[in-house]
């Protein structure tokens, strides 16, 4: 399969490795890095990319940032950037790719443990992750031509040393384990599912 | 209690009636109707309102519109307006009121049955409702000075004859029953709860 992968960070790199090991062709997309460049907050840039890629069978997203900030201090700009990035950015990936993806193709987006679990200053993350998961569950009922859409919800990554101090007491997950969940979502007939790599049940 | 109520439609009117019957003072807010006017999509207009209201003990929202449109046809504008209205609009209510609400005050927002249940063209509603509920659960962990925040999730209203044809087979709920849930959320020590008026369990 030819798979378009957004994000070149810790998750994106691990997903690329796992997909290539399993014989897939990966086109990695970053804002400034990757095989090709596109801006998730600009749907015209995404449409131009997908139109130009030729046949592809899956779109996977390991991209989109959210601000961490106490509710009373979070700024309008932090809210707007978080929604435009990880929220509407990922929704735009799907909207822009839908006219071009092969029949039976799949979309795999990313949310995170903050959907359900609190950390101090985690309200923005919780809001945006729920937005993404809500979209995935809704879009799963509207996918045309046998396409599918799922979401990966990792807890904090073992490799993300910058974020670990914000997830106190959370057992981290290795990026490779998260990457296997992407492969699982792409390779199997799942639709509308949230695959959780949370390390705790509650 | 002095309660600031956003929305003057079927739910807003019923909430006003129930709150007044229970002895509360209600200040109703609409874009063009109500006792006072404010625009939920403009946080400066909300801040000006709350600064000017004097002491208030609760903010209740029965406002915010979402587009219904098939995923493949929904426009950038429909997405942006839905997020800015029912999504970020309600989040802005909370952000703007927090510096002014009385200690122990409460916020009550509105989502809807689409959070969990599909209708054709319901992906936008599902996305925005999950965004709102995610915010409520996150903000509940960050409320200062004993304040609380909850969310009412009604199914389609019996009174909303315009929307009934889109909710085929869904048993509608009378607006007064929804209004009682607002009273319950305001009058009792709930925090981070989603009160569902769905008429079906699954």
From TrEMBL, chains A, B:
It holds the Pfam family adh_short_C2. The keyword Iron does not apply. GO terms for molecular function: oxidoreductase activity. Belongs to the short-chain dehydrogenases/reductases (SDR) family. InterPro entries: NAD(P)-bd_dom_sf, SDR_DHRS6-like, SDR_fam. This is Short chain dehydrogenase. Signal peptide: none annotated. Keywords: Oxidoreductase. NCBIfam families: PRK07578.1 (NF005754).
């Amino acid at each position: 399969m030819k798979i378009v992968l957004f994000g070149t960070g810790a998750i994106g790199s691990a997903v690329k490795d796992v997909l290539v090991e399993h014989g897939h062709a990966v086109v990695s997309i970053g804002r400034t890095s990757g095989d090709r460049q596109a801006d998730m907050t600009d749907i015209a840039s995404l449409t131009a990319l997908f139109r130009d890629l030729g046949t592809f069978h899956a779109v996977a997203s390991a991209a989109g940032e959210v601000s961490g900030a106490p509710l009373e201090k979070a700024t309008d700009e932090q809210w707007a950037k978080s929604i435009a990035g990880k929220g509407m950015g990922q929704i735009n990936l799907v909207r822009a790719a839908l006219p071009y993806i092969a029949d039976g193709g799949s979309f795999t987006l990313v949310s995170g443990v903050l959907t359900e679990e609190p950390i101090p200053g985690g309200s923005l993350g919780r809001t945006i992750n729920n937005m993404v998961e809500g979209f995935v569950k809704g879009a799963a009922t509207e996918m045309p031509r046998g396409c599918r859409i799922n979401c990966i919800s990792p807890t904090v990554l073992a490799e993300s040393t910058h974020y670990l101090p914000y997830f106190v007491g959370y057992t981290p997950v290795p990026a490779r384990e998260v990457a296997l969940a992407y492969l699982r979502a792409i390779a199997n007939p799942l639709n509308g599912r949230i695959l959780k790599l949370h390390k705790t049940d509650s």
